[in-house]
Amino acid sequence: MTAGRAQDGRRLRDVLLGGGPLATHQGPYFGEFGGRFVPEALVAALDELETAYHKALADPAFSDELERLHRTYTGRPSPLTEVPRFARHVGDGVRVFLKREDLNHTGSHKINNVLGQALLVKRMGKKRVIAETGAGQHGVATATAAALLDLDCTIYMGEEDTQRQALNVARMQLLGATVVPVAIGSRTLKDAINEALRDWVANVDTTHYLLGTVTGPHPFPEMVRDFHKVIGDEARAQLLDETGRLPDAVAACVGGGSNAMGIFNAFLDDPEVRLFGFEAGGAGVDSGRHAARFSGGSPGVLQGTRSYLLQDEDGQTLPSHSVSAGLDYPSVGPEHAWLHDIGRAQYRPVTDDEAMDAFRVLCRTEGIIPAIESAHALAGAIQLGREAATWSTDGHEPVVLVNLSGRGDKDVATAAAWFGLIEDEPVVKADEGEQL
Amino acid sequence: MSTTQVRSSTGERLDALATGESPRAALVGYLPVGFPSVPGSARAARTMVEAGVDVVELGMPYSDPVMDGPVIQRAVDHALAQGTRVRDTLRVVEQIADAGAPVLVMTYWNLVLRYGVDAYARDLAAAGGAGLITPDLVPDEAAQWLAAADDHALDRVFLVAPSSTPERLASTVAASRGFVYAASTMGVTGERTTVGDRAEQLVADTRAAGAPRVCVGLGVSRPEQAAQVAAYADGVIVGSALVRALLDAPDESAGLDALATTVGGLAEGVRSARRVAR
Questions:
Q1: B186 with A303: Cβ contact below 8 A
Q2: What is the DSSP string of chain B?
Q3: CB of A247 within 8 A of CB of A391?
Q4: How far apart are CA A1 and CA A360, in angstroms?
Q5: What is the pLDDT of residues A172-228, one digit of tens each?
Q6: B163 to chain A, minimum CA–CA distance in Å?
Q7: A102, A100, A104: which is closest to A83 by C-alpha?
Q8: Which of A424, B2, B191, B192 pairs with B199 at a CA distance of 20 to 30 A?
Q9: Residues A363-385: pLDDT tens digits?
Q10: Is residue A330 classed as helix, strand or coil in its secondary structure?
Q11: What dihedral angle (degrees, nearest 10) is formed by the CA atoms of A12, A15, A16, A19?
Q12: Which residues of A touch B137 (CB under 8 A)?
């Protein structure tokens, strides 16, 4: 973003918010996006959740408890790692720092939101949580929190995904959760969400829907962002400590968009920090096989919120595609849609090939196996490296902060097949999964 | 709100039944467009009216029907797989508008948003449709639709649920025209052995909030259930049981026969109800 564009962003912000900070913007609406497009039966529960959440925010005991859990259980603060050998693939003189959400308990940023919501569930007096999952990361995190806090737990997962991710199904079962295969529609993540919503409508008195990303009806986008903003808050302080300045650019992958909102949030009101979200370009946006909602979609309503989505001429949801399970979702969080429209963040597609190349580079240069989702952010950083020379950085070396949202243990089979390390294994390119 | 200035064809039908020689509740029958085929769904809707349905609810097939249970999901999946389009719904409305029953379209909101809210209202009115039932649109998000429905004299059927607070009952009733759809239970569409015991109270509460007409849906599938609900509600809404009649049949003609039989039993149930004075 040029300085002019940053100023435009600031001016727009003034118009939209009367000059208020972007970082604390509350729902239900983010510009023309967000809202609550749900059956009336769920409105009372969403109101209850919103009230409980705002009450908890005002109660120091809640943040103390969450902070304690993050310190003693999640392993926060997560480190900030400078990756100079990887940075050579990004560009001459560019410094790259990774925010290491991959080192959290359960292996990704997902735990930040899950623990926050699970504590709220206890406060609301509910005994049961349900959640959707694609590849299983959010399901595993939810099953983990349910075990820790003594909650009944049911995870909805597309039948196709339960077969492809049998190991994660076993993990969830080991943790005491019931995993329900969803055998309708496209049998993947989108349908798992539909089924979780149906369960919620029927059992809302006793059950909380522990939604895994910054989508869905209000207050989920705002609340899930808030539970993840610790990522950006920590990274900002760590980077200032390390370099004495803010990053020139922040890169994150965007499925539903929770890890991206988490790291963007701390920089939203620093117009000089460029924010980049990288969505799954799949086989290429022109191929029609992708999950690029911004470059290949249009505004509409899906699963409770108005945002950008993949839809046909009639408004029927189109299937998404990505090598990355967690980016393979036809819609995106409404706050991202708003940041896109006001020009505060830019969203670009990264193809399967680019992401897997970056995956290999990080493995080989830094000894870190990233989640394939996070590899999209790494590939994005490599794209940014080509334009970093044009950034005005007052003579400093350009600094790119990348959110390494998860680790790649879950992706070893996919990657091994992709790189031909395993004979006679089909390349699993069409994995559907939960949105990161 | 200027709702009283707009005529409601559904409301007039319900009022006529409630004040006729043998006052009774209406039977509202749901079928999705495109099942078993687009022309087949028009024939099925006509069959339904001839067999005793007073108000038709035509479903627009949608890829993500979160308020529908397995029976309707199966039919809708089939309709979409066959390439059923939004404009097919308008065509079927037009084809059955003269069948003798007001035709409401039941639709998830994105389909109307994509078409254009005002354009859809205009084309639905032109096709002879009576209005919309909107299961995933609450009045809070419906400003465009409220205006378009007034401009094109269409009914706006919103839902209330056992979880609705008195404040929400009041705002939903105020935004509705034609009737208010009371969900008998917390759940999705489908046949159930008993109609939710919160339904009668919900109807009473919704009337107390100012609704002139309240119809009950979700889980009503058998004649005795229809009779039970018809005793206290202005209409009985049946969907999955009718779709099942078509789904289970070996061919279309057998399906239409089964549909007529099912509707006949339900219509009998509605007529046999002992009406509770309002």
A1: no
A2: --GGGS--HHHHHHHHHHHSSS--PEEEEEEETTSS-HHHHHHHHHHHHHTT-SEEEEEPP-S--TT--HHHHHHHHHHHHTT--HHHHHHHHHHHTTSSS-EEEE--HHHHHHH-HHHHHHHHHHTT--EEE-TT--GGG-HHHHHHHHHTT-EEE-EE-TT--HHHHHHHHHH-BS-EEEESSSS-S-B-SS--TTHHHHHHHHHHTT-S-EEEESB--SHHHHHHHHTTSSEEEE-HHHHHHHHTSSSHHHHHHHHHHHHHHHHHHHHH--PPP-
A3: no
A4: 29
A5: 999 999 999 999 877 888 999 999 999 999 999 999 999 999 999 999 999 999 999
A6: 6
A7: A100
A8: B2
A9: 999 999 999 999 999 999 999 99
A10: coil
A11: 90
A12: 37
- DSSP letters, A414-429, are HHHHHTT-STTPPP--
Rounded CA separation A293/A299 (Å): 9
Cα A371 from Cα A77, distance rounded (Å):
20
Residue A61 tokens, joined:
């005991």
Per-residue pLDDT tens over the stretch A18-53: 558 999 999 999 999 999 999 999 999 999 999 999
| Closest chain B CA to residue A191 | B64
A322–chain B nearest CA distance, Å: 20
CA distance A290 to chain B (A): 18
CB A74 within 8 A of CB A115: yes
Q: Is A12 on the interface with B (CB under 8 A)?
A: no
B-chain CB neighbours of A317 within 8 Å are 63-64
Residues 6+ apart with CB under 8 A from A274: A1, A248, A249, A250, A346, A391
